[in-house]
Design brief:
about 300 residues; alpha/beta; 11 helices; 8 strands; about 45% helix; about 15% strand; globular
């Protein structure tokens, strides 16, 4: 379901849980410190964690502010641990991704489609007991509530009942915080989000990046939060999406380097060192700036 666009610069921010949010915020700030402003994109497409970061970049909130917010959360976690209290990531129940990963790993049966498999994942989400929908949305509302839909921003979701892919944008007529929450609703971990009378889950169950949606953009920066454990499963899909953009499009892919992956931990849903992850992203952004600037800032 490509986005019907004919634009110059498109930014694609992929999913990756709380780890992805911290790392993408740091990456964007590191690039910004070297003169590369990802917020100048004509179109910003976010999936899951990338929808949270992307909505703010597209709204004009500078990457420096996003980065500072992640460092502040990390400092708060450290202070709580020093006081003998569990940090925010440790107060949440340990996420069990086993059922969802099992569905990702299971080969499609004869005659089964990708949409059929997404329907299975949606069914998992609908039957799993999680925190309440309103409580989950409130977590996004602290940052996004009342924010006007940023021009050029879109985020991805999947209909939990049908498995159909859905793109939310400024023409959709839905609240930004609810759309972003739906894009971040990992099946089996978080509740499906109600929009227009239907319930939606994480757009990452279609693809961790959904890069193919921006087909038609002349320049694309795609950010994929690929951890060591997920690389073998995710990279073939990402490479296929990049190939779909065609030879006319100029595309650069950014994935976490070794230094960033060293601080990620094994589970992207558990940001136990949020500040360290953000700083690793910042440092990588500075290292990547010359390569990215050649495409992004000069034309």
């Amino acid at each position: 379901m490509p986005m019907p666009i004919e634009v110059d610069r498109a930014l694609v921010l992929g999913g990756g849980g709380p780890v992805g949010i911290a790392w993408e915020a740091g990456l964007a700030a590191g690039l910004e410190s070297e003169g590369v402003d990802l917020g100048r994109a004509d179109r910003v497409l976010g999936t899951s964690a990338g929808s949270f970061v992307g909505a703010q970049l597209a709204s004009g909130r500078g990457a420096k502010a996003l980065y500072a917010a992640q460092l502040a959360l990390g400092e708060k976690d450290a202070a709580e641990r020093a006081a003998g209290k569990p940090a925010s990531a440790e107060r949440m129940p340990k996420p069990d991704l086993t059922p969802l990963i099992g569905l990702f790993m299971k080969p499609l049966a004869e005659g089964e489609t990708a949409e059929d498999r997404r329907r299975e994942m949606g069914a998992l989400a609908l039957r799993t007991e999680t925190i309440g929908e309103d409580a989950f949305i409130d977590g996004f509302g602290q940052t996004l509530n009342g924010m006007a839909w940023p021009s050029g921003f879109a985020c991805t979701a999947v209909d939990a009942l049908t498995g159909a892919f859905r793109l939310w944008d400024e023409a959709s007529g839905v609240a930004l915080e609810r759309a972003v929450a739906s894009s971040c609703s990992v099946p089996g971990i978080f509740p499906p989000i109600t929009l227009d009378g239907r319930r939606y889950v994480d757009g990452g169950i279609r693809s961790a990046t959904n890069i193919d949606v921006v087909k038609g953009a002349r320049r694309v920066i795609a950010v994929a939060v690929v951890g060591r454990l997920g690389r073998e499963m995710q990279m073939p899909r990402i490479e296929a999406e990049l190939a779909e953009l065609g030879p006319e499009g100029q595309v650069l892919l950014i994935t976490p380097d070794e230094a960033s992956q060293d601080v990620f931990g094994l589970n992207l849903m558990e940001a136990t060192d949020r500040a360290g992850i953000a700083r690793a992203g910042y440092a990588q952004g500075q290292r990547e700036a010359e390569r990215i600037s050649a495409l992004w800032e000069h034309r």
